[in-house]
Structures are given as C-alpha cells and as structure tokens.
Amino acid sequence: MTEEGKATPADSDRDAAVIFDIFMRIAAIPRCSGNEDGIVRFILDRAAAAGFMAEKDTAGNVYITRPGEGGGEVAPPVVLQAHMDMVCVAAPGCDHDFAREGIDCYEEDGILRARGTSLGADNGIGLAIGLHLMEHPGKSHPPIQLIATREEETTMHGAASLDPACIAGTTVINLDDEEEGVITTSSAGMMAVAFAFSAPRVRVRGPVSWQTVEVVGGRGGHSGMEAASGRANALSLLGKLVSGLMAETGCAITSLTGGERDNVIPGQARVCIGIDPAVVKQVILFIREEARACRETYRETDPDLRIRIFPATPQKDVFTPETAAAAVALLARLPTGICAMDPVIPGLVATSVNPATVSENEGVLTIGLSARSNDDAALAKLGDTFRKMGPEAGAAVSIPGVAPAWHYREVSPIRETVKAAYRDLFGREAHLRGLHAGLETAWIAQKMPVADLIAIGPDIRDAHTFLESASLPSAGRVCVLLRETLRRCAGGVEEDNED
Prior knowledge:
Elements: H1 12-27, H2 37-50, E1 53-56, E2 62-66, E3 78-83, E4 105-108, E5 111-114, H3 121-135, E6 144-149, H4 157-160, E7 171-174, E8 182-187, E9 189-198, E10 201-203, E11 209-216, H5 234-248, E12 252-258, E13 269-275, H6 280-297, E14 306-311, E15 317-319, H7 321-333, E16 337-341, E17 349-361, E18 364-373, H8 376-393, E19 396-398, E20 402-403, H9 413-426, E21 431-435, H10 441-447, E22 452-455, E23 460-461, E24 469-471, H11 472-489, H12 492-498
Parallel strand pairs: 3-6, 3-7, 7-22, 8-21
Antiparallel strand pairs: 1-2, 2-6, 4-5, 5-24, 9-18, 9-19, 9-20, 10-15, 11-13, 11-14, 12-13, 16-17, 17-18, 23-24
C-alpha cells in the first residue's frame, strides 16, 4: 500500500497470506447449513477481540460494524455480505462426520483443496476476505458493515429474515461470487421441490436374481453455475435406464438412492433390483449397451462416468410394483438441465431444472429437485407444472419456498466504482454478467428496492463437489480491489484529482 493509502497489486500476496490463515480457522469449524452456531461464535469472538460492534439477530445472522476513517467518517456506509454455511459433500468412500469434524484442507502452489470432501470456499473464502477487510480496511474508508448470514445453501433463511433496519447502508457488495475479474449484476431465483411417494413393501416370492445397478463417476457440480456445462445427472440417467429396463425385461426395486443436496448435480445414483433368473444375461447386455452409449455421450464433460451392474445381497421385500413404476417413470420424465436460454444475454441460462436426490425414510420415497430461473414468472410456471406432475404420478408435492430473482440495475454507482478500480489496478476491464445461481442479493433487493448491489469474488472451481478448489492469489487480488473500492467510496478519487 502506498503512503497515500492507495491499494496496489503488490499488496495481494500479504493479503492472501492473512486470508489463508483466517480461512483455515473457518474450515476447522463444522458449518453445514443449519449447523452454524460454531462459526457464529467464532465471528463474534473475533469482532470483540478487534473492538468492533457486533450483534446477532433472531435468525442467527451476524452484523459487524466499523466507523469510517481517514476522511470517510461521514461517507455513505458500504455493506459487505457473505454467508457462513457450506455445502457438505464427501467423495465416494470418504467417511467424514460433517457435524463434528472440520474440513481437512491444504494449500499447494497457491491452490486450496480439501482431502475427500468439499472445501467450503463457497463462501468461506468470501467470509475470510470480509473479516480481513474489517480488520485492515486501509487508511481511508467509509463506515463498513459485514453481514454474515445463515443457511444460504439450503433455504436462504438468513437473507430472507434480514431486517432492513439492521442493514447499515444501501451500497452492498456480496462476496459470494466465484470468478475474479467478473462483476455479477443479476442472479436467478430458485425453487426446491419434493415429490413424496407412499412406499409400501411386499414380500419376495420365488427365485430372484438380485443385482445392483449404479451410475458413478459423474463430475457433479453446482446446479446453477454448471447448468450449461452439459454434465451428466446420475439420477436422471438412472431413471431412464431403469424405466427402459422395466419395459424390456421387467424388474422389482428394493432400494433407490442418489444425490446429496438439492443444489448439487448428482454424480452418483444406485438401484437394487430383483429380476427373473432367466433374463439375467439379457439385463446385463442391456445395461452394458446403455453404459457404452453414456460413456460416448459424456466423454468430454464426465470422463470418469460409469454404469455398472453386479450381484447384490438377497433381499426380503421390495416396493410394490405400482410404487416402483410410478417413481421411476417420474424420475425419467422430469426435465433435466437447461430448459430455456436468456433471449437477451448471449450464453446465459434462463431456466434450468436439477433432479437432485432420491431417498427412502419411514415408508416414504422422496425425489427432490431444484429449479432456477431469472424470470420469476417462468419459475412460477414450473411450480405449476410440478404440482400437476406429482399427483399424476401418485406423489404428494411440496414446494417449501421460492427465492426471488435479482434483476439488473441500469444505474449502479458501486458497479462503476469497482469497474474503474479494477481497470486502474490491473490494466484490464472487468466483465459484467448475469448469474444462473441464487444469490442473497435477491432478498436484499426485495427488501430494499433502493439498494445498489453487486457480487464479486475470487476464483473458485467445482464448488459443491469434493473437487472444489480456490485460488489464494486470486483472493488476495480481490481483497486489494475491495480495499481500493472502499478508499474511493470514502472520497479518495476526488482527493487524488485535487492533487
């Protein structure tokens, strides 16, 4: 940093080192969605140690405030916002207790990764950047508030519960983006849907060959960020596969599972079937042929995708034929991936659907999915479609909530300030984009229509998967950008011009 307090690219290495230290402390705290009490205590304790005003609201969101300094005392406040929770996903075969164990992460050549699980850089890195900036905002800055929210990855309950009276200003920078050099200016709305089948069972009679069929090795990924990637959806593939098998040879189903989170493209799914011993060879040939076709289709997007069939442990009972046929037929019929592209913004997915989970619990078989759209009307129409599809298939449908879309703002002073700061610091232009993922900015915009909102962040790859990684040098540069932005929001540009 220069004597005048200006941020420079040379500061980024020092910032990256501090961000790494804070993130490692965050990663050591279990913080799956709904289990944020530990990270709340960490933030409140750190704020108290730094002498900041900090409080928690009834929803569990945390607010930290710092007065302006260096000429920015009376400037309009700037709000930084991040979420505390993470998507908890383990690699196949990794036995990790997310409720009690932190993330085992490491750094190699500037890249952060985790051993066997998702990393939680979404949004742990953004939270670390926010905490670092609260403690080291530069010599000149406006009043700053950091808001850390709960349950972003599931219900967005934290953001939906924000009281506008607790938000210090109308200039808000969300730290939950995942690509350096990009300023996000809009995001998609999201809807979670559950189809619940009553799943009675019947005893097995006569000779049966038991087989497990599984789809494994899908790359998975964030169901919004990767909606246009063409990656395989293991549940959708398995639904179509078993539907075809039922028509080809017939089969009974004793278990059907797959996926881990509504907002994650499922990379694996499994079914245990019972078949007539006379058709075993025919079934194996059918599965192998489908496996070859899938490998060819997804050879670029999912090079490790495999469909396998192998003998299973004999079972005592199976789902009734009606339940099995109805659930599989629905899974095969559900839309998957891109439903519509944006008619105005080239390359932007407008609407998508992600069949995400299948599980059985206490006699109920549930199929969960997430749908996204940057058009609120299109999302509502999808909801109507799912409400019809469920009863037609014999399933009860629940849509617990719908998160709104965040729409582009024609006039945005903070967007222009960040663009100018990025250009002056790094000698290139920042790219503006709409995002096909849900951001908490949508709830803030709904509650505060006058709010001037953007989202930025460092490079994060494969979020919501056990392949997730984050770039520490990128995090350092984003921190430098934000510090320079704060200086300009305090009036630093005007002072420079006067010199």
